[in-house]
Design goal:
It is built from 12 helices and 37 strands. By secondary structure, the protein is an alpha+beta fold. The strands form 10 sheets. A 6-stranded antiparallel β-sheet has the order 8-7-6-5-10-11.
């Protein structure tokens, strides 16, 4: 998600606006709208608000834009064709004042006031809320489109009889959430509201745009809020819609199961559900249940003078309860200073701008439980002001200066954060699986060699003691489940007492052969699964097999971020730059590094494959992800 509008375009708009002389008459014509309203009237104030803040708002134009819009209304065209066109769509960005007429602006003002006057909660909406969150005809940089009446006509029946704007917000939000299909779209082009109303699909950015427009058409004060990047997850950020009450109170939906928005709740999309209670204190992994943010911003029609690549972005972090400040002594004077969080697999990336005053740098209204890096701009480069800073959940701060004189051994099992999406939500379903041996291919007589009584944590190796060598061995999921596997390996001991991997013919029941094969391909991302409620897969070790099963390794469905044997990895620590601790080829499902400086921020890179990698610290024998 590329949230911030490049400053390059803004410069182009300024230049183009200054060079196209015949547009000056159009601009003057727009400004004459003020004479249509009495001097102290609310409508005149509304017109002045729109004119004052219109300067740098832009819209997309071009033949491709019109072509895409027309094709989007064709039910005979597939989403694949439309997405292909969208991916390569050529468009140019034009300032609003160059394309919006006085008549358009007046219609928008008149209609917004008309709808405000007749809504059942008119007295609950202050003029300030109306001006900021209902009046504006544009939300992002979407093509200008007269959407207000069409959306109002469509959604008004949904809230018939409701007299409370917050209740109406909840009703509309849930309806759109249930009927808008979220999908990834590889394009920077912001589709117009007519197309979004027709297709009801798109990114979270598209959905937020559509929701806010619908809310405005119904005179429900709401805002397009977003975080440019998660602080512990993914390479992108997220957007959502909040209800805005008098006094700037905000209400949000935290999960897709919510039917009522909550004041000061978790932001949309940030909370991984936890189906079972799971205490990771005794686990080898730290498990997170929350996607974290460092800052929260808001798309604003008015210019709040918050310039992080876009001048129409307001910092609303304080409204979400983010109240931590970072203050650093500095010799800087006029340099630009920024705060960065880590973007998965890519390095540090800017999320906020700081202030330099009286030989101090300050970053305000930051979240808890994050690790961030203050930087300053020197020429074309961004240089660290200090080493990364961790803000703990209780608000205490620590600078992560690696202690080069105090090192430790670290055992690394993953390169990316582990979330409750996997443990316990998915992996708890594997409790009860069995490893069984038999002398019959149909397992009509069977011995249970192992039964799983606790949740597996990814790649799992279990020792088995057996007095008998079986020809047939199998993995059987718990009854009435079809929990998928990505790896299944049987081991025995040879005459010399050495561990060996056992081989044979793959056997299975109630699963396709191609699916069963995936459990034995040594790839943790290929998933062996069945369409039936039960199945089993195993191995025929051959007639006269003499090897007793001594160990079994299995791995449930997962994200592929465990350490994989045969892959090459490199570990770094941060000390004003990334410093390598060397590369290794994994021979097990974990890596061991010696002489790692304590207190440092670490980054484990997979040089063989994959991009999902996050920074972490090593505390009490665990990787703690940031």
């Amino acid at each position: 998600m590329k949230w911030f509008f490049p400053i390059f375009y803004i410069l182009v708009f300024l230049i183009s606006a200054g060079c196209v002389t015949d547009k000056s008459e159009e601009i003057s014509d727009i400004e004459t709208i003020l004479t249509d309203y009495p001097i102290f009237s609310q409508k005149r104030k509304a017109a002045k608000f729109l004119l004052k803040n219109m300067d740098f708002h832009v819209t997309s134009e071009g033949r491709d834009v019109e072509k895409y819009r027309d094709m989007s209304y064709d039910n005979n065209l597939s989403e694949e064709i439309l997405d292909s066109l969208l991916k390569n769509l050529f468009h140019r960005m034009i300032p609003h004042k160059n394309v919006i007429s006085k008549d358009f602006l007046k219609r928008e003002i008149e209609l917004s006031f008309e709808l405000w006057e007749k809504c059942l909660w008119k007295d609950d909406i202050s003029f300030d809320l109306f001006i900021k969150y209902i009046l504006p005809y544009s939300i992002c940089s979407e093509p200008v489109f007269s959407w207000r009446k069409e959306l109002n006509d469509y959604y008004t029946p949904l809230i018939a009889g409701i007299t409370d704007p917050k209740e109406a917000f909840d009703k509309v939000y849930v309806n759109i959430r249930e009927n808008f299909k979220l999908k990834d779209i590889d394009s920077d082009f912001q589709r117009d509201l007519g197309v979004l109303h027709f297709t009801r699909n798109g990114t979270c950015n598209d959905r937020s745009l559509y929701m806010v427009a619908v809310m405005r058409s119904l005179c429900i004060p709401s805002a397009f809020d977003f975080t440019p990047y998660w602080a512990n997850y993914s390479t992108v950020g997220h957007s959502w819609v909040s209800y805005v009450g008098n006094g700037n109170e905000i209400y949000v939906f935290s999960t897709i199961d919510d039917s009522i928005s909550q004041k000061n709740g978790y932001i949309d999309g940030s909370l991984f559900d936890k189906k079972l209670q799971f205490d990771d204190a005794s686990s080898i992994f730290k498990v997170d249940s929350l996607k974290k943010t460092a800052k929260v911003f808001r798309k604003s029609f008015a210019n709040p003078n918050k310039n992080i690549g876009s001048i129409y972005v307001a910092d609303v972090s304080n409204l979400y309860g983010y109240n931590n400040n970072i203050t650093l002594n500095t010799q800087l004077s006029k340099q630009e200073v920024y705060l960065c969080t880590f973007q998965s697999g890519n390095d540090w990336i800017k999320v906020d701008e700081g202030k330099v005053k009286n030989k101090k740098v300050e970053f305000q209204n930051l979240a808890n439980d994050i690790t961030c890096l203050p930087v300053y701009k020197e020429g074309l480069n961004y240089l660290p002001l200090c080493n990364p800073i961790t803000i703990y959940p209780d608000g205490t701060q620590i600078v992560r200066n690696p202690d080069l004189g105090n090192t430790e051994e670290v055992i690394l099992r993953r390169k990316y954060a582990l979330f409750t999406f996997w443990a316990p939500n998915r992996w708890s379903n594997y409790i009860g699986l069995t490893i069984e041996g038999s002398d019959y291919p149909d397992f009509r007589s069977v011995d249970t060699l192992f039964k799983l009584n606790e949740m597996p944590l990814g790649v799992t190796t279990v020792s088995i003691t057996s007095d008998k060598a079986y020809r047939y061995v199998r993995y059987r999921p718990p009854e009435k489940t079809h929990m998928a596997l990505t790896d299944l390996t049987f081991y025995g001991v040879n005459k010399d007492g050495n561990k060996i991997e056992l081989t044979g013919d793959i056997i299975f029941d109630h699963i396709e052969y191609e699916e069963a094969m995936k459990a034995f391909d040594k790839d943790f991302l290929t998933t062996s699964n069945s369409r039936f409620n039960w199945y089993w897969i195993g191995m025929d070790l051959g007639e006269g097999n003499e090897y007793k099963i001594s160990m079994v390794r299995f791995c449930p469905w997962n994200d592929g971020n465990f350490i994989e044997s045969g892959n090459e990895y490199e570990l770094f620590y941060y000390d004003m730059k990334w410093i390598s601790l060397g590369s290794k080829i994994a021979t097990e499902t974990y890596l061991t590094y010696q002489d790692v400086p304590k207190n440092g921020v670490l980054w484990l890179r997979n040089l063989t494959k994959g991009r999902e990698e996050r920074i972490f610290t090593y505390e009490n024998g665990k990787q703690i992800w940031w």
